[in-house]
Automatic annotation (TrEMBL), chain A:
InterPro entries: WD40/YVTN_repeat-like_dom_sf (IPR015943), WD40_repeat_CS (IPR019775), WD40_repeat_dom_sf (IPR036322), WD40_rpt (IPR001680). Keywords: Nucleus, Repeat, WD repeat. Transmembrane segments: none annotated. It holds the Pfam family WD40. WD repeats lie at residues 213-255, 257-299. It is found in: Nucleus. GO terms for cellular component: cytosol; kinetochore; nuclear pore outer ring; nuclear speck. This is Uncharacterized protein. It comes from the Eukaryota. The keyword Nucleus applies.
Automatic annotation (TrEMBL), chain B:
Signal peptide: none annotated. Belongs to the nucleoporin Nup85 family. GO terms for biological process: mRNA export from nucleus; positive regulation of DNA-templated transcription; protein import into nucleus. It is found in: Nucleus, Nuclear pore complex. This is Nuclear pore complex protein Nup85. Component of the nuclear pore complex (NPC). It holds the Pfam family Nucleopor_Nup85. GO terms for cellular component: nuclear membrane; nuclear pore outer ring. One of its GO terms (molecular function) is structural constituent of nuclear pore. Functions as a component of the nuclear pore complex (NPC). PANTHER family: FROUNT PROTEIN-RELATED (PTHR13373), NUCLEAR PORE COMPLEX PROTEIN NUP85 (PTHR13373:SF21). Keywords: Membrane, mRNA transport, Nuclear pore complex, Nucleus, Protein transport, Translocation, Transport.
Amino acid sequence: MEEIYAKFVSQKISKTRWRPLPPGSLQTAETFATGSWDNEENYVSMWSIGDFGNLDSDGGFEGDHQLLCSIKHHGDVMDLQFLDQERIVAASSTGCVTIFLHHPNNQTLSASQQWTAAHYHTGPGSPSCSNAPCTGVVCNNPEIVTVGEDGRINLFRADHKEAVRTIDNADSSTLHAVTFLRTPEILTVNSIGQLKIWDFRQQRNEPTQILSLTGDRVPLHCVDRHPNQQHVVATGGQDGMLSIWDVRQGTMPVSLLKAHEAEMWEVHFHPSNPDHLFTCSEDGSLWHWDASTDGPEKSSLFHQGGRNSTFLSHTISNQANVHQSLISSWLSTDPAKDRIEITSLLPNRTLSVNSLDVLGPCLVCGTDAEAIYVTRQLFS
Amino acid sequence: MEEFDGEPTVTWIPGVNSQKKQMCFDWGPGEMLVCETSFNKKEKSEMVAGCPFIHIIRKDIDVYSKILRKLFNESHGIFVGLQRIEEELTGKSRKAQLVRVSKNYRSVIRACMEEMHQFAVADKDSAIGRQFSSQVSILSAMELIWNLCEILFIEVAPAGPLLLYLLDWVRLHVCEVDSLSADVLGSENPSKHESFWNLPGNTQTLTELELRWQHWHEECERHLQDGTFASNPHLESLCKVLLGDDAALLEHKELLSNWYHFLVTRLLYSQPTVKPMDLHLYAQSSLDLFLGGESSPEPLDNILMAAFEFDIHQVIKECSIALSNWWFVAHLTDLLDHCKLLQSHNLYFGSNMREFLLLEYASGLFAHHSLWQLGVDYCDHCPELGRVSLELHIERIPLTTEQKALKVLRVCEQRQMTEQVRSICKVLAMKAVRNNRLGSALSWSIRAKDAAFATLVSDRFLRDYCERGCFSDLDLIDNLGPAMMLSDRLTFLGKYREFHRLYGEKCFVDAASLLLSLMTSQIAPRSFWMTLLTDALPLLEQKQVIFSAEQTYELLRCLEDLTSGRPLCGEPDAQQLQDDDIETTKVEILRLALARNLARSVIKEGSLEGS
């Protein structure tokens, strides 16, 4: 972990996402998008970290990220996902879901489609046009799934004006995040600590499976699926706890790891090295979890200034049923044999790190201290 | 009362007829609310349509500038870092560390200045460009003052190095203000002097330096006396300058941009080993000579003079008056306080100066829709009034989304502000209940450990059940977990749902004893007892005997409790009569069922096992 560049951008960053690379491409990530929040005028912006030679017109140095274009966004940007190379979907605190189109030739962003009342409240006490923030969005071109504070799940299709499917009152509490498991199945997490799996092929509006932690109903804020093993899911909670779940195995998490001191806002498996996991939190830290079982030489090189820790495995379900060949380093439980190395990536403690994204050797994250950090050498 | 330089600016409020109507106003932390009243200026009341709006007036436009935000954020990081390292440092490393912090602050100001300069240059002719330019000069002045304070108060440069620091200071600020030339007096001769001084290595003591300088000075003077340069007036003038002749220096006034440049030049040629304590004498005379009675000193000049006089309080006071934003004085005062330079200067309203300034700055931050998170840290580091100030501010932050609410709550919880946590959670829970998000409402009351609200939510659930005959949000009630213990009503709700589940799974005996315990343990609200008893009916009517005799007696007792406690109130109307009818029928059915069950259970218990 060599260099991490910070830049102050005069807006609190709520989401950062790398632009996906064309499949089979050998390039490294070059462009990322950010969304801001808590401003009177919020923006969705595109940034570039391409090489500019030694000094560019702004006096910024090589490696410093530059703003390409931005567009005003109504309401806080609650979530951001790339639909494909050019289109990005933004979820707003006004309950609106927008698809923005990026024009690379003249470097502008424009709103290409919008669903304005994707999320709203209905209730005896709420006025008729009461908006509910849309809290999470996930894309699988051309499908877009959104969830919100109104406990509603929407399935949209790009270029279709109306929602393809809506599950009203899917949850009595707020849905915080959503991810795809297998294509017709999604998994949502809510503010009473439950994971629910929904199958869009089924007509009834009931989850096919509910998983939850025993003990206190700690709200879960983020979820990510293992890139290769579609039954392994990681969630982060309000108490900063990282949980790894195997959705085929019972209703309890496979392991619970004490992580941050405050809410964990995002958790990401590395898309090409899934033995690496990244989490960021309200406590201002960003952690890199390395569960790869490489030799000791590699770990010590990796480990400058990091923190060694054996993970506290709190297995609840019976592991004997797990197929040996499919065992993932995240699911294995032998504390003596497998250690997860945890490294903190940000140099100083800062205000909350709201979002992070990883692609190849590049990582980008955004904070409430109005700074964006980028590194291009994650595995140096 | 301070005197103002000019007339106060007038701001017109749009839509308000200020000729005819009077306005009223109220101050806020950084803003003012103004609206039109119905009082007229003239005697007779005219029915003039009034302006229906309340206007918010902000004085402090600095806070809203995009580039200045970077200043606020970066300096916040430096501030917090300074408070953290404070305890660890002692002795020499402490001073070096404090100087480094000061330089950090200054580099942040410079970065901001340069960025703004780009905008100013790009937009030269428009009003905005001029605004940027004026902002650049304000920042430049701030950096000038800070730099001088760093040299005099933090670095505490002794005689000797003092002049070099001052030279750097002037050079830095003269060169950047787009002056015509690296002017002759400033740059040419010091280079001669640098080699003369030969300071790297610092092998010479102050007295040695002074002796050498004296010697050189005398030589110069001798040359002048002898008329060596008589043929060339330029060289002669130059020689006079090298001797520190005031008149000669002033002849080239146009090359000196300001009086402090003049001061440093004078010192360079006449008093290079000037002691810090003597600075103010030279400063005052330089100011007077330079201005020559033509113009009066500007605020910046007064501030610099106060610094040369080592009057820190005066510096801070003047800066507070001159600058429109508390940023500068707050951070500078805090840094100087860490240098232990401020005596506990008690202001008449009981706080100390550092805290007062920091809290004023923090208040301004809290008034900003986005920068309130920075304000929290500033309050944290004000031991006397910070916490109280934070408690008041944090409750007033508008909460538009749950995520923002979570951040605010985290701030409160980290500081054990339980009252604020409860009040915020209550607001959010009420909003959730109104929007029919009972699960969210429950999760907020669990977070606040608010038993009363949990009871309210449970009552809502129970009411919904009574109305609809089934539970909504089963996913929530089925999975309450230990949160169930938060309030009695919630426990009842959970247990009641469990009863329904047991019944559904045909575990009748367990269901029956659970139902009974709900009534006997008094956690069921009385209003619900009828429903519970009615729920017992199918169990009583089952083929096999479920309730034992003992249990049946208990049920009977509960029924009696319920019916005896129901007084008739006044004149019952038709509806109530009908309700009463239903009630009576229910009670009768129950009594019959209970009696039958009692009979069967007595027989069953009385007979031998196996029957």
